[in-house]
Amino acid sequence: MNLFRTLTRTTMSLLFLAVALPAGDAAGQTAKELVGAWTLVSVNVEQGGKKVEPFGPNPNGSLMLDGNGHFSIVVVRPGVPKFASNNRVAGTVEENKAAYAGSLAYFGTYSIGEADRMISMQIEGSTFPNWNGTEQKRLFTLAGDQLTLTNPTGSVGGTTQIVWRRAK
């Protein structure tokens, strides 16, 4: 049940953590523009010339970035079946598998490389345990209220492109 404890902690971190930016003069205008709450638009993975939507065509999610360099990300596939027991630690193998496969959450600290348009994320905790304690780098583009992150080493393989819209 450690998975569920981790998922609960990560979800709680979404409420309490935000992503912080580097202090002082290192934080440029673009970095400051990334601070805030973002709503998930899409997640697309390219593997061997094929595009896949691992969280479906209309995923739910939130990205929180604060001005002190902390971040929290939660992505959830809509329509994951509810647990018959109504108890998250008493799910069946099939229910647990669907819940795990239909979600990804991680949190930690980040820094912005404005020259190379890179966000470096130091992951403190993740529902994908292979990312715990690692640094993940994402290329970013910011166009108005749309933020696109490109991860060349996605958790399902291939290159992942995640599009966010500034929350209003």
Topology:
Elements: H1 2-16, H2 29-34, E1 36-47, E2 50-52, E3 60-65, E4 70-76, H3 93-101, E5 103-113, E6 118-126, E7 135-143, E8 146-151, E9 159-166
Antiparallel strand pairs: 1-2, 1-3, 1-9, 3-4, 4-5, 5-6, 6-7, 7-8, 8-9
The overall average pLDDT, rounded, is 84
- The name of the CATH topology is Lipocalin
Number of helices: 3
**Low-confidence spans: pLDDT under 50, at least 5 residues?**
3-27
Estimate the global geometry from the Cα principal axes: globular
Number of strands: 9
Number of individual domains:
1
Rg (C-alpha, Å): 16 Å
Q: Structural class of the secondary structure composition?
A: alpha+beta
* Lateral strand order in the biggest sheet: 1-3-4-5-6-7-8-9
Q: Class in CATH? A: Mainly Beta
Q: Gap between N and C termini, in Å?
A: 35 Å
Largest sheet features: 8 strands, antiparallel, barrel
**From the coordinates shown, what is the CATH architecture?**
Beta Barrel
Q: Write down the secondary-structure element order.
A: HHEEEEHEEEEE
Strand content: 35-45%
Task: Give your account of this protein's structure.
The chain has a single domain (2-166), classed as Lipocalin, CATH 2.40.128.280. 18% of the residues lie in helices and 42% in strands. The protein contains 3 helices and 9 strands, in the order ααββββαβββββ. The chain has an 8-stranded antiparallel barrel with strand order 1-3-4-5-6-7-8-9. A hairpin with a 2-residue loop joins β1 and β2 (50-52). The protein is globular.
